[in-house]
Amino acid sequence: MSTLWIVLGICVVFVLAAAIPLLRRDDPGRSPLPPRKETLHDWRNER
Predict the structure, then answer these.
(1) Interatomic CA distance for residues 8 and 6, integer angstroms
(2) How far apart are CA 26 and CA 28, in angstroms?
(3) pTM of the full predicted structure?
(4) Can you give the pLDDT of all 47 residues of the chain as single tens digits?
């Protein structure tokens, strides 16, 4: 039974460690996404 609790605790810690970066949206060091690359389709639509 104690082995089950250890495995369950490791799983919870792993899930929380993976979820914390996703939950932090207001990180000041986070840079915005780069602009989308221009495609041939965009170039044809500019005419």
Answers:
(1) 5
(2) 6
(3) 0.47
(4) 899 999 999 999 999 998 887 776 665 566 677 787 777 776 666 65
Maximum pairwise Cα distance, the chain: 71
3-state secondary structure of 1: coil
36-40-44-46 Cα dihedral, nearest 10 degrees: 30
The Cα 24–Cα 47 span in angstroms is 42
Question: What do you get for the CA distance between the two ends of the chain, in Å?
Answer: 71
